[in-house]
Amino acid sequence: MKLRDFLIGVATGLAAAVIIKEASEKVSPFVPAGQVLENIKREFKKDSPIDGSWIFMKTEDFTNGIITIPVYRGGISRMHEGEMQTFEFAADARSGVVVELTEV
Q1: Per-residue model confidence (pLDDT) at position 25
Q2: Per its UniProt entry, which superkingdom is the organism in (predicted)?
Q3: pLDDT computed for residue 18 by the predictor
Q4: How many domains does the chain fold into?
Q5: Do 55 and 92 belong to one domain?
Q6: pTM
Q7: Based on the domain organization, do 34 and 7 belong to the same domain?
Q8: In this structure, are residues 89 and 64 in contact, taking their beta carbons and an 8 Å threshold?
Q9: Cα separation values, 52 from 55, 60, 76, Å
Q10: How far apart are CA 23 and CA 10, in angstroms?
């Protein structure tokens, strides 16, 4: 095999990888809602057991006065030191980062 043929193969493979990555981001640019909820639950479980959780599978717009981003809305309930705590959250649909957390 000639070096030239090898380099053409490598270049073709890299170009295909870039095209596939770009196309997949356009098709579904959001982190799956279930994965976002599992990540949030994992963080809450570090402090105390989870009693229940939910998440809306469709995104909605969230604005903080400066920017507007698509978010998933959801909630977590847990027993903490003998008392039931309920939290509602908004998580960035693109990264899964919690942008709002309020105790209800």
Answers
A1: 61
A2: Bacteria
A3: 77
A4: 2
A5: yes
A6: 0.71
A7: no
A8: no
A9: 11, 22, 6
A10: 20
> b/e per residue, 1-33, with b = 16+ CB within 10 A?
eeeeeeeeeeeeeeeeeeeeeeeeeeeeebbeb
Amino acid making up residue 39: N
The pLDDT of residue 27 is 65
Walking along the chain (104 residues) 10 residues at a time, the average pLDDT comes out as 81 80 70 94 91 94 90 93 92 93 94
Co-location of 23 and 49 in the same domain? no
Nearest Cα to Cα of residue 30 among 63, 60, 52, 64: 60
| Domain interval for residue 34 | 30-101
The answer on 82 and 64 residing in a single domain is yes
The residue count of the chain comes to: 104
